[in-house]
């Protein structure tokens, strides 16, 4: 059972989210105050922390900053009624892993949580080893890619895109999903940037206009099929 901390000052909304998450099998602890929430986040082990932006005592952004300054790597999703570009950027820059504006459907929150848990589980599984696909070897800790012993130089974003596709081998990945997994929720990033970076990676792996490693699924997105 995953243990969640919800820091939310609206009692009715907090109770609603708590009940829905407990119905899904999570163990949820609720705090209605920023200072208490920070103390709980620091003193106990959590699988995920959900934090409202506007809180009494200490706001959600400051909680994120303090946790990250303590090298606390617990995943954080920020919940807030404020949804301007600057609010999203401030939330993510403070250390939040995701940002979801209110009001939201509980199904969307659960989907965001599942995506975050999948990324974390994949990282834990592969952080000490390599991923092999056809004649490519992707070494995750050193972030290097080799083909038949020859190193292929990729930028950080290109490597992250390749790794996201490898994590979901044999699954069609839409442009929107790749954008969320690789770029997060960066302001001003459009889905066509995915096409641009897929082209960059292909040119380095395959050569121009070839699709040996990354295949296009017309009208949907991309996949790496074994």
From TrEMBL:
GO BP terms: namely: regulation of DNA-templated transcription
Chain ranges passing through the membrane? none
Which cellular component, as a GO term, is one annotated location?
cytosol
What protein am I looking at?
A: DNA-binding response regulator
- Tell me which UniProt keywords the record has, alphabetically: DNA-binding, Phosphoprotein, Transcription, Transcription regulation, Two-component regulatory system
Residue numbers carrying 4-aspartylphosphate: 52
What Gene Ontology molecular-function terms does this entry list?
phosphorelay response regulator activity; transcription cis-regulatory region binding
Instruction: Report domain Response regulatory positions.
Output: 3-117
| Entry-linked PROSITE patterns | OMPR_PHOB, RESPONSE_REGULATORY
Q: Which SUPFAM superfamilies match?
A: CheY-like (SSF52172)
Q: Which residues bind DNA?
A: 128-226
All residue ranges annotated as the OmpR/PhoB-type domain in the record? 128-226
Q: Which domain of life is it from?
A: Bacteria
Q: Which organism is it from?
A: Cohnella faecalis
**Family matches, as InterPro entries:** CheY-like_superfamily, OmpR/PhoB-type_DNA-bd, Sig_transdc_resp-reg_receiver, WalR-like, WH-like_DNA-bd_sf
What Gene3D superfamilies does this protein's entry cite? 3.40.50.2300, 6.10.250.690, Winged helix-like DNA-binding domain superfamily/Winged helix DNA-binding domain
């Amino acid at each position: 059972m995953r243990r969640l901390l919800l820091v939310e000052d609206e009692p009715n909304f907090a109770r609603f989210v708590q009940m829905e998450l407990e119905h899904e099998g999570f163990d949820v602890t609720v705090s209605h105050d920023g200072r208490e929430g920070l103390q709980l986040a620091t003193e106990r082990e959590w699988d995920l922390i959900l934090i409202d932006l506007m809180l009494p005592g200490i706001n959600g952004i400051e909680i994120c900053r303090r946790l990250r300054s303590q090298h606390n790597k617990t995943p954080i999703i920020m919940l807030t009624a404020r949804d301007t570009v600057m609010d999203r950027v401030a939330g993510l820059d403070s250390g939040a892993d995701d940002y979801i504006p209110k009001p939201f459907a509980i199904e969307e929150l659960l989907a965001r949580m599942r995506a975050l848990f999948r990324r974390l589980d994949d990282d834990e599984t592969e952080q000490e080893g390599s991923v092999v696909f056809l004649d490519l070897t992707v070494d995750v800790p050193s972030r290097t890619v080799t083909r038949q012993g020859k190193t292929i130089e990729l930028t950080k974003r290109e490597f992250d895109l390749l790794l996201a596709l490898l994590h979901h081998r044999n699954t069609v990945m839409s442009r929107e999903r790749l954008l969320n997994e690789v770029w997060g929720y960066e302001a001003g990033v459009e889905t066509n940037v995915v096409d641009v970076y897929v082209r960059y990676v292909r040119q380095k792996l395959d050569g121009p206009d070839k699709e040996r490693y990354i295949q296009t699924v017309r009208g949907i997105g991309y996949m790496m099929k074994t």
